[in-house]
Amino acid sequence: MLAPELAKLSGDNKNVELRIIPNEHGPITATDLLELLKHPDYKKLFPMMPVIEKAVAEVNKSVDTEEGKTELFYLLAERKDAQIEIIISKDKMSAEAQLTAAWGGKTLSMPDILKALKANKIAMGLKKKRLENLLRYFIRLKPGEECKTVIAAGKAPINGENAKIERKVPLARERLLIPQEKEGGKVDMRELGSVIMVKPNDILMRKTPATEGTHGYDIHGQKLKAKPGKDANFTAGNGTAISETNPNELIAIAAGQPVETAKGMQVDDVLQIKDVDVGYGNVNFKGSVLITGDVHEGMQVKSSGDITVMGFVDSAHLEADGDVIVNKGIIGRQMDGGNKVTTSIKAKGQICAQFVQYSDLEADGEVLVTKQLLHSHTKTHASLTVADPSNRRGDLIGGSVHADKGVKAVTIGATAGTKTDIYCAMKQGEMKEHLKELSESVKSIVLAGLDLSARLKKLPPKAEWENDFVMVEQVKMMLEEKHQLIAEKSREEDEYAQLKKEILNYYKEHGIQALKHVFPNAEIHIGEAAHKTNREHGPCTIQNVDKEIKFDYGDKGDTAKKQNEKKQAEQATKQEQASDES
């Protein structure tokens, strides 16, 4: 053990000095020197371990040598003031204060911390309560211990909400899904309510305007601009107008049937007919058509609005710029050896019916069949649903389906193995081509912007041309063009980002959902992936996963699948036993 008098404070009290003669006091260890530093006057000073290790090595090397007679001098410890480090996040949205307790030196106070914050330009979001708590904790630390906490935080901008347009009146097609309630709470599936009509001043649509959002700031006080919500507007169609008292409301100015359009609504005159037959003749009406009875064989009905048929459509042609709603059924027959059918329905809106057989259906909007879709050819740019509101009934059997946004049915195919072709989500290739075009367009806008900026930079000083009317107008046009390019670039970049997201999630969102069964001989095409079922499947979702058709059964589907596999295995065993016996 070394004598305590070998170590003492330096004249300025900043260090612990060691004076040692190797031949008299050696050999030594680092522990010996650290024991010296446990003296009450030294224990709060910072041990300088590299120096201690060096002293041990040099003293022990010199022991019992001529050099060992010479006194050696080392600084073993030093006073260190408390330290503060301000750690700023990369996005400049938060700052941490890290405090290190002093080794016998000067401690920290609130003014020291505030000075450090000022030096780091922390101007916003300071959390004084946290600073006070940090200091209270800090003063209890042992020499060299650290504490750290977030002491300033910026405020992220809150982007504005997009405008929302809400339709305030029901449409004719929605009657098909809302059977009327009778006395006692019972529902009559055959009674679908009265025809939807509106009168002047009825509110058709109401808009909730877009909001500007709330700007934010970082810890340096830099303003972070919020992105305003996108506006949306409705367009007044025939029989409608923007309300004079509330510009966010679209109202009816005429009595009639409300019809949804691409950008708003219109109120159509309604032509009401009992039956469309040879006695009445074909119909071509500018407005909506209400047929309280049936459309008979060989007849045609065309409308610039909706066509609503309360009864049946039998081997006829219906064409509407709006929806086609058939409350009972659409019936056709095969002809030309089964290659063609006798009924065709076209709609720029939706097609809705309770059941359909041997018919061609073509719609820009959704196709909804609540009971059965049999041996028909269906094309829709939206989705096909074959199910009632409770999802208990809905058979899709035979024929072909082309549905851009997927298919939902209670049952697909039949136990007899009826061939049923389904094509959906076939547009991803076109979407990718459009994405490529958008990318090229954005690049061309960027280049045009750079060229315009270069031309603006080459302009002579303003003082030389500010009185030249022609030059002033040219500069104004260039600046206006620049603003237009910036706005166009922003729009196309937003469209690019949205389309890219849609492509990424395309097959996740557009697939086939079977709520109860998929029977054998259903040919399924989702994008480039194809599969022909050769057995029965239970409730499942069918998707294109990595260019392969995948069946996701969930818990219920797994059980049904296992039961089906067990049934098939039992049948195979019985067949083998019968073969062996024979």
Describe it for me?
The chain is built from ten helices and 45 strands. Strands 21, 23, 25, 26, 28, 32, 34, 36, 37, 39, 41, 44 and 45 form a 13-stranded mixed sheet that branches. It has a ten-stranded mixed sheet with strand order 22-24-27-31-33-35-38-40-42-43, with no helix packed on it. Strands 1-2-4-3 form a four-stranded antiparallel sheet. Helix 6 (428-457) packs antiparallel against helix 8. The relative contact order is 0.05. Mean pLDDT is 87; it is low at 185-194, 556-561 and 575-582.
Topology, pairings included?
Elements: E1 7-9, E2 15-20, H1 22-25, H2 30-36, E3 46-47, H3 49-62, E4 72-78, E5 83-88, E6 94-100, H4 110-119, H5 128-138, E7 146-153, E8 158-159, E9 164-167, E10 180-181, E11 187-188, E12 203-208, E13 213-214, E14 216-217, E15 223-224, E16 235-236, E17 240-242, E18 249-252, E19 257-260, E20 264-268, E21 270-273, E22 283-285, E23 288-291, E24 300-303, E25 307-309, E26 312-314, E27 317-320, E28 324-331, E29 334-335, E30 340-341, E31 343-347, E32 351-357, E33 359-363, E34 367-374, E35 377-380, E36 384-386, E37 395-397, E38 400-403, E39 407-412, E40 420-424, H6 428-457, H7 462-465, H8 469-504, H9 506-509, E41 512-518, E42 522-526, E43 529-532, E44 540-545, E45 548-552, H10 554-581
Parallel strand pairs: 16-20, 21-23, 22-24, 23-25, 24-27, 25-28, 26-28, 27-31, 28-32, 31-33, 32-34, 33-35, 34-36, 34-37, 35-38, 36-39, 37-39, 38-40, 39-41, 40-42
Antiparallel strand pairs: 1-2, 2-4, 3-4, 5-6, 6-7, 8-13, 9-12, 10-11, 12-18, 14-15, 17-18, 19-20, 29-30, 41-44, 42-43, 44-45
Helix pairs in contact: 6-8
